[in-house]
Amino acid sequence: MMLFSRVRGLPVLAPGEGIRLGVVRTLTVDVVSGTVTHVRVRRGRLRREIAPAWGALDAVGPDMLVAVPSCAPDAAPPHHELIGRRVLTEDGEERGTVLDAAFDPLTARIEAVLTTVGELSAGRLLGLGDHALVVRGRRAARG
Description:
mainly beta; SH3 type barrels; five-stranded mixed sheet
């Protein structure tokens, strides 16, 4: 299990030569499938960000990622930041703010979203946009 907060800032290296491509800025998620889809890599102040697909990573470790620099941000799916996003139920009830998320680095599946009011299972996630993370309400999640 890995936390989003532990991945941010990790160096990203090219396979083989060990050339540093940049550092992880953030992760892109698809809440419908409940997976991390891309890694957003900051390459320096004046160089463009790259966004390799999570599945294209050669290695994932606690202190670095190894990735082929194959995907420019415009080729990656749209990005909405998960960390810091408001959490709303489908009925519009406020459920805190996202603090972190736990995911399996091998499958990229999100296991849980940690919020200011508790932990949400990935099965409750409905959508993520500029305004909020939308989740199933408690009654809908049970039935």
